[in-house]
Design a protein that fits this description.
The protein is an alpha/beta fold and 401 residues long. 47% of the residues lie in helices and 13% in strands. α3 runs parallel beside α10, α6 packs antiparallel against α7 and α7 packs across α8. It is elongated. 44% of the residues are buried.
Length: 401
């Protein structure tokens, strides 16, 4: 179910920004659970047959709807598998997960780095040649010079102190040192400290923002949270339709608007969330490159307007980062952090081609980046494939354990 705030036309008396609907238009029209039509004159048609889009659906919208439906079916299968009780379950900040299954998917996702680093310890002596190979492997894994130097300095000291002469023990020491290095990035996402907790989500085009929001909506619901979504990409109908599809799949309300100011949607969503007793309001924003300065200014405006609806909001500002972008992720994090003061990261698409070392670079503060907490990492399309970041698990996968 979603609500459509139409653009203000000549003669309209009510402004779009700063107003929260007193009643649910879908319930008033008897269309709860269906999409609202573009015009009130279409209500009678919608009552007879559910609409498939907001207004006329173009090719891009239809394609996005089909993709969203396919993703929803995939996630439904994952939900069914998760609820069947297969595998040992463990409790995390995300909900209940099959521990063995998740760790195997994480290891598979980082298999490229795991094989490159883990393979160095097979049948070798502990000498300077091994450290040279490790240095090359870590740099190739996108760890960067600063993190690589810090890790190897600590490893040399550990080997010397403990008089390690076995390659497998050196590997175990590297895993422990890497886990300690990544530990500052490990932080559980805070819940319940505000009502609602307003989460602003940004990222470059194609990073996986909308898919991540859909998975997080499900995760928060599993923890008993009431979720409200805001479609902040107001100029791309396909993006709005995709978020609406996720909202329908998770039975979550979506505040949307045809065209207009994305800050208005964010403002309305915060007020609506407060009025309806929502626990979490997640505000999606349009994808943009940090080099597009006018779009970065728009992002700053959205943040300011959210603050006008709630002077403590946004409580969390997340950046969704594609795990395949390597060292480019560092520049993205630095630019978005400077613009909107990030509080956390969501790293997606760690699916086998990603190297993973970028997080080591973030933890080391490479290129002046701030060590921002990593709340979640994603290794696939399944509902359970987005999980809280755990430093020890990630370190073990990186060294091939």
């Amino acid at each position: 179910m979603f609500e459509l705030f139409k653009k203000k036309k000549a003669g309209d008396r009510e402004p779009a920004v700063g107003r929260v609907k007193d009643a649910d238009p879908a319930k008033e029209a008897g269309l709860e659970g269906k999409r609202l039509p573009a015009d009130a004159a279409d209500l009678e048609k919608v009552a007879e047959a559910p609409a498939s889009a907001v207004g006329p659906a173009g090719p891009a919208q239809a394609q996005t709807q089909a993709q969203a439906q396919t993703q929803a079916q995939t996630l439904a299968q994952a939900q069914a598998q998760a609820s069947s009780g297969d595998g040992a379950a463990s409790t995390s900040g995300y909900g209940t997960r099959a521990a063995g299954s998740w760790l195997s998917r994480l290891k598979q996702g980082l298999s490229r780095t795991g094989q490159n680093i883990g393979g160095l310890f097979i049948g070798v002596k502990v000498d300077e040649a091994l450290f040279d190979e490790l240095e090359s492997a870590l740099i190739m894994a996108d760890a960067g010079v600063e993190a690589t130097t810090k890790l190897l300095t600590a490893l040399r000291a550990r080997v010397h102190k403990d008089r390690i002469e076995n390659a497998d023990q050196v590997k175990a020491a590297l895993r422990d040192i890497l886990a300690e290095h990544l530990k500052p990035l490990e932080k559980k996402f805070p819940l319940g400290y505000a009502s609602p907790v307003v989460v602003m989500i940004a990222g470059v085009n194609g990073a996986g923002k909308t898919t991540s929001i859909g998975k997080l909506a499900y995760a928060f619901q599993q923890q008993g949270q009431k979720v409200l979504l805001a479609a902040g990409d107001t100029f791309r109908a396909a993006a709005r339709e995709q978020l609406i599809a996720w909202g329908e799949r998770n039975n979550v309300s979506v505040i949307a608007q045809e065209g207009g100011d994305p800050a208005a949607v964010a403002f309305d969503a915060v007020n609506a969330g407060r009025a309806r007793g929502a626990s979490i309001v997640m505000v999606d924003t349009a994808g943009r490159l940090p080099t597009q300065l006018h779009l970065m200014e728009e992002l700053k405006k959205i943040r300011r307007v959210i603050g006008k609806a709630d002077n403590q909001a946004p409580h969390e500002v997340l950046l969704v980062v594609d795990g395949n972008t390597g060292q480019n992720a560092i520049s993205q994090i630095r630019a978005f952090d400077a613009a909107i003061n990030l509080t956390g990261l969501v790293v997606t698409k760690l699916d086998g081609t990603a190297k993973g070392g970028t997080l080591a670079a973030v933890a080391a503060g490479s290129q002046g980046v701030r060590p921002i907490p990593v709340y979640w990492i994603g290794v696939g399309e399944g509902m359970e494939d987005l999980q809280p970041f755990v430093a020890r698990e990630f370190a073990a996968a990186m060294v091939g354990d």
